[in-house]
Inverse folding.
């Protein structure tokens, strides 16, 4: 049977293709990064207080006691020689992302994660924590009540856990104290880096920018880089990027098939083509059943009881057992429709696609995870 008559079978299994709207096109800002405009990671060490007996134990996390003693001494509380064994304190690592061009006084979200043996951070409060960058300079300070989405409920002989109760966050919990100096408007050129390098896409971006501005300022350096020469433009680099970042560009997507073995997910690119090939799907099943017969002598006669084996063997075939013939240059929808018509499962479909790739019938990159 030919695949051209099987397109209506797409609804038979949960593998389908959605046609993209004709007017839907990605913008330049969605497919490139501006070189030098990036986020910066921050990290800090702090303590969380106010836990309901779910904090670190002194035996397994001695650094928690040392941190608490140091903090209390800085606040004017003398705890020298005291045996502190709090159960409502936990040591944590605090992480955050400093956005590009962030200014003093702005707030950012922080993530808090326990590094000791605390059971939960629910109900805790993060104490003032300096946030440092890769250069070991302090760029923000974090403090606030922790929001925990995880749940850990224990009972005699049972335990139920959802998410991770030892990880939480503080929305807008960090205030920026230091800015990263970067004079963007003083640049004479700007480099755009494609997130997925491709010659065709880079050439289309170059043509789109030059056509929109009416002059040649964009130059494709390689499939992943486009350089903007701003020396001939009176506008600032920020204004130039604002005028081009929303321009639509047609992205060239590679012919690729991705198979996720764990979840059974199969994703096929739109440009996947198939050469002429035959597909047979079906498995042989062998069933053996035993029905023993007992033979014993008549009453008042000599002899022994004997068990006689009686075996039945049946050979059948599971699956549809159909053979499909694919014509030259079959489209994606026809491929999916034909495999659906064969009644194959996603796992069997993955095996068929791998076999077709090995036979050289699929002209696409195959990615198996």
């Amino acid at each position: 049977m030919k695949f051209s008559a099987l397109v209506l079978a797409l609804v038979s299994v949960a593998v389908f293709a959605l046609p993209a709207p004709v007017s839907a096109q990605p913008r330049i800002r969605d497919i490139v990064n501006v070189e030098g405009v990036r986020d910066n990671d921050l990290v800090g060490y702090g303590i969380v207080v106010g836990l309901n007996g779910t904090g670190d134990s002194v035996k397994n996390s001695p650094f928690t006691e040392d941190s608490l003693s140091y903090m209390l001494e800085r606040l004017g509380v003398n705890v020298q020689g005291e045996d502190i064994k709090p159960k409502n304190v936990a040591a944590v690592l605090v992480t955050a992302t400093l956005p590009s061009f962030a200014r003093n006084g702005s707030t950012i979200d922080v993530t808090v994660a326990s590094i000791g043996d605390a059971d939960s951070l629910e109900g805790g409060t993060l104490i003032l924590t300096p946030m440092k960058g890769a250069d070991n300079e302090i760029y923000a300070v974090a403090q606030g009540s922790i929001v925990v989405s995880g749940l850990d409920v224990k009972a005699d002989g049972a335990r139920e856990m959802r998410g991770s109760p030892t990880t939480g966050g503080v929305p807008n919990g960090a205030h920026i104290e230091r800015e990263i100096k970067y004079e963007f408007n003083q640049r004479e050129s700007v480099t755009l880096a494609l997130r997925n390098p491709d010659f065709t896409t880079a050439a289309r971006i170059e043509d789109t920018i030059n056509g929109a501005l009416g002059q040649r300022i964009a130059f494709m350096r390689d499939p992943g880089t486009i350089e903007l020469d701003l020396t001939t433009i009176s506008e600032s680099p920020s204004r130039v990027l604002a005028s081009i970042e929303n321009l639509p560009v047609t992205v060239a997507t590679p012919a690729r098939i991705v198979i996720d073995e764990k979840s059974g997910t199969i994703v096929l690119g739109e440009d996947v083509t198939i050469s002429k090939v035959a597909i047979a799907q079906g498995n042989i099943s062998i069933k053996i059943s035993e029905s023993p017969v007992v033979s014993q002598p008549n009453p008042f006669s000599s002899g022994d009881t004997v068990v006689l084996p009686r075996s039945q063997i049946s050979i059948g075939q599971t699956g549809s057992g159909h053979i499909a013939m694919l014509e030259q240059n079959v489209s994606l929808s026809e491929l999916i429709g034909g495999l659906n018509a064969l009644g194959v499962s996603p796992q069997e479909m993955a095996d068929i696609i791998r076999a077709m790739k090995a036979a050289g019938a699929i002209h696409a990159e195959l990615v198996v995870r």
About this structure: Confidence is low (pLDDT under 50) at residues 1-22. The first strand starts at residue 32 and ends at 34. Residues 199-213 form the longest helix (15 residues). The chain has three domains: 3-19+256-293+308-368, 28-36+183-244, 40-176.
